[in-house]
Amino acid sequence: MKLIKKIAAIMLSVMMVLGMASVVSAEGTTTSGAYNNTTGTITIDNAIVGQTYTIYRILKLESFSVTGTTGNYAYKAEDNWGDFIKNTKTSDNENYLVEDASGYVTWNTKVNDNDTCKKEFAKKALAYAKDTKNSIVVEHTPIKAESNTVKFEGISLGYYVVDSSAGTLCSLTTTNPTVTIQEKNGVPSVEKKVQEDSTSVWGDNNTADIGQTVNFQTTITAQSGAQNYVLHDKMDAELTFGINSVQVKLKKNGEETDNEVETSKYEVKNSGLEDSNLCTFHVEFKKEFCDTLKADDKIIVTYSATLDDDAVPKTEYKNETWLKYGDNNETNHGVTKTKTFELPVFKYTKDGTDEKALAGATFTLSKNQNGTDPINLVKTSAENAAEGTYRVARTGETGVTTVTTPSSGKFTIKGLDADTYYLTETKQPDGYNKLSAPIKVVIAENGNITIGTDTTVVTEVKVLNNTGTILPSTGGNGTSLIYFLGAVLALVSGVVLITKQRMKNN
Fold first, then answer.
1. What is the mean pLDDT of residues 13-37?
2. What pLDDT, in 10s, does the model give residues 388-432?
3. What DSSP line would sit under 62-86, residue for residue?
4. Listed residue (439, 430, 301) closest to 369, CA to CA
């Protein structure tokens, strides 16, 4: 993609010092000569550092006659500008300039005192000059601003159009060989945000499940004269861009609402990019759209990506955005960061003071307090063969909702958003009591894990199981105790019966 230099909104009243071929009489010394007898200077104040400034001469001063501070000036078209002068018309189908049979050029009388028309003319002249098929030669080597002042010195007299972030038409004459232009346009900027799904708030960071759609928003603050706006976006490989998700809205400066921009006003590209090694996609705005932009208009671009399966817990996945404009100029870079987390679990019992791993317990993980609607999981290759490793399943992906502890008693669930979860034991190991309620687990936005109401940060969720109450076995001391208690009860019963019988006989 070839980016041409930026045409800014024509921001100044066109500096037409003297009308072309106008005759003004005054007292004083008379001088005359050819156009190349004198040179002039164009100065740009308040220049934007890094912006390239270029000047094109449209009309050359063929000859002049000056008396005092006024004079007569004869202009002809510069090389390769003839067709432009003859064919470029106002909205009323009037030529901006009139060329006589001898090739001398004057302003159309309907345009001469109309600054709006002259601004339109300058804008069209810039577009013509930068169209390579017209073979327009620059009058002076373009200057890239290294400070806030740019000077084109030693240039021939005539009418010029200045190409910068703002285009301006100006004239250099023998009575006014120096012109100063005030650069009034600012530099566009971008602001990049990502949406946290749990709160719907736009910020610099978010957390997400694997397979989750992550929403991004880039706001471009435009400036007058916007040209060649191309939004660049670079995503880490673990974020998969959805090209059909791009939506563009425009909020005009001073308005409260934004309006959707027609897709014909921009083009989204994710292939065939000149800088494909740097960018995931571009949004290229059409010239007719850029021409409508004013200072501080907001272009709001939203789009989404999916967090991939191979996302590593606690790793920051970046999405970087910037705007190129004009002659390959570049704005600030906006960056967002997306993270995902994991939940390690250890199932065990106590053997004295020792922790003994328990296999065969099954669990579900849910965001519901009662443990319903468990999260769908996919088993992955274990980093440790003795442990089970799972990740959150993508939408539509076949998975499981229960996890069974291996011999190590450990399993890990990866790809979790920062949120509150409930770990529910659905089946206990044989001979052990099942947990009576789900375990509340909180994963904070920094990845820290806490359990229940305890604020202590843990590295894993440890689930303790105790054995059930064991009844005494047959033939043991317990059985003897039962027999003894039975004999005592029988003896007491006998005594009571004998006593009652004696009382009756008496």
1. 38
2. 899 999 888 889 999 999 999 999 999 999 999 999 999 999 889
3. EEEEEETTEEEEEEEEPTT-HHHHH
4. 439
Lowest-confidence segment of 159-163, 238-242, 476-480 by average pLDDT: 476-480
CA distance 121 to 60: 17
Instruction: Output the CA angle 131-132-135, nearest 5 degrees.
Output: 110
Domain boundaries defined on the chain: 30-182, 189-338, 341-464
Q: Token digits for 450?
A: 């806490």
φ, ψ dihedrals at 174, nearest 5°:
-65, -30
Q: Is 28 left (phi over 0), alpha (psi -120 to 50) or beta?
A: left
Which of 142, 131, 53, 55 has the alpha carbon at shortest distance from 88? 131
CA torsion, points 126, 132, 137, 138, in degrees to nearest 10? Answer: 50
Alpha carbon distances (Å) from 380 to 33, 126, 313: 87, 60, 14
Q: Class of the 30-182 domain?
A: mainly beta
Nearest to 129 by CA among 113, 142, 143, 111: 142
Domains 30-182 and 189-338 share a fold: yes
Give the 3-state secondary structure of residue 287. helix
Residue 388 tokens, joined: 């089970």
CA gap 144, 53 in Å, rounded: 6
Please choose, from the candidates 164, 318, 320, the residue with its C-alpha nearest in 3D space to the C-alpha of residue 231: 320
Torsion sign over Cα 375, 379, 380, 386: positive
pLDDT for 304 equals 98
DSSP one-letter code for 165: S
Do 270 and 284 form a contact (C-beta atoms < 8 A)?
no
Q: What is the CATH number of domain 189-338?
A: 2.60.40.740
Q: How many CB atoms lie within 10 A of CB 382?
A: 16
- Round to whole Å and give the CA distance between 240 and 208: 13
How far is the CA of 208 from the CAs of 313, 340, 342, in angstroms? Answer: 10, 5, 11
**Separate counts of helices (H) and strands (E) for the chain:** 4, 35
Confidence of residue 167 (pLDDT cuts 50, 70, 90): low
Q: What is the pLDDT of residue 498?
A: 65
23, 193, 194, 197, 210 from 201: Cα distances, Å: 67, 9, 8, 7, 20
> Whole-model pTM?
0.70
Structure tokens at 341: 């987390």
Average pLDDT, stretch 74-100? 90
Report the topology of domain 341-464: Immunoglobulin-like (2.60.40)
Name the token pair of 196. Answer: 């946290």
Both tokens of residue 431?
């001979």
Residue 78 contacts residue 138 (beta carbons within 8 Å): no
